[in-house]
Structures
1.
Amino acid sequence: MVQQWDDTEAKDFVAMADIVIPDRREQFEIVVDLVPFGRDEEFVFIDIGCGEGLLTKVILDRFPKAIAHASDAAAEMTSKAATLLAPYGERAKLSQHNIHDRDYLNSIVTGQVGFITSSLAVHHCHDTEKKALYKSAFDKLSSPGAFVIIDAVKPASKWGIKLNKKYWRRSIQQQSIELTGNEEQYQQYKQIPATFYDEPQEEDKPATAINNLRFLTEAGFKGVDYFWHKCGFGIFGGYKGLRHIAVLEKE
Ligand SMILES: C[S@@+](CC[C@H](N)C(=O)[O-])C[C@H]1O[C@@H](n2cnc3c(N)ncnc32)[C@H](O)[C@@H]1O
């Protein structure tokens, strides 16, 4: 059965994301830092499961000549993204596609792209699909190119789960205070870490860090790395051509 978020789930996520997801804005900045192009270079990128378009927007702001193809399965999300990305005109192209569909990336845009990214959407694929997605991302990328993913990562042991629950909950509390000045949102969302691990939704199928890195390596990526991690969320990816180091040193 094809699974995707319904519009209510999408709306709920938008309301809570900055409180519940650890260091969300910093996560986006890290993705931007890993783009293998200079600030004034032209390149095309795909944002898989773009949601309301926040990550797409951050990349478009940093790279004024970049062109985005942002895609999501939920109409509620693509409609929010259309509003957020309207000021970018032709630089932001939106579409509605299902990550489980065959030839998913090619249905978003034909031809090769320089960068593929995703925030918190790839864990909706089971591991066999992730493997296929990472391979199709490798084929879809030009060289230089890169695939960088923010996602929930499955702990390798019960101890890892315990640790994630403790520190994720603490992060929700801190962000509630920092962003709203009180613990109201923390009280509302503090059960999420326990629920995520103890009563997982059918659509949540994160892979372990090691499996994600293995799938990327097997797909052909170079410089495969786990760039950041906090209480069960990771940023990982790989390159087609290793030009990013030279680009970053130049900036
Ligand atoms: C946790 S949200 C993340 C949204 C956005 N990337 C962000 O970080 O703000 C997960 C997104 O994946 C999308 N999604 C869920 N199932 C999907 C599917 N089968 N195909 C494509 N997108 C899907 C949801 O609609 C939602 O926008």
2.
Amino acid sequence: MDEKNELTIEEAYKMLEEAPRKNKELWVSHSVNVAIVAERLAENLGLDSKRAYVFGLIHDIGRGKKEHTGIRHIIDGYNYLMKLGYEDEARICLTHTFYDRSIVKGNLTKRNTNLTRAEIKFIEDFINKTKFNLYDKILQIADNMGSATGINTIERRRAESMLRYGISHVSEKNLKTIFAVQNEIEIKLGRSIYSLFPEVTDNINKTMIKDVMKFLK
Ligand SMILES: [Fe+2]
């Protein structure tokens, strides 16, 4: 039998509480919203919604390891959870960032802040040998819908990110591949993912564009 450790919701919250880092409120509330999205998607897909909730809570736990980690947070989170024996949770730290194998290299070299050559190679090999399961895909979508302030459309989240990091062939590929994941999940659900999240409409109705796009005053 598979005897993998499974992190409980309580333990995952404890990890978030103990994470020492500035701007913690932002990524912690992002993580809680990601957990809410992941949980609901899992529930509607007939998966274990508690597991999906835990994955949402800890997917960015590497951000608690160092200041200004950037893309480093994925490997820091992976190593931290692997050391504790949480293999499935560790996997999510890496898989939530890459929606398709074709975007691994571009994303790592573009946003490669202080990753060693060996770490880049490790991440590439890991993603290349991993066949994404539904939990990986749910978390990819959830990461793109849960923001620090609430639950949003993927389009809003990606537009905000492109304006922050720049529009390039990498961001174009990220956009195309996340929509392909959305398509796959919606076909399984038989409905739009947004039909499960009335919060998205509330959020759009409540917020003005200047609250979303920070460059507007
Ligand atoms: Fe995230």
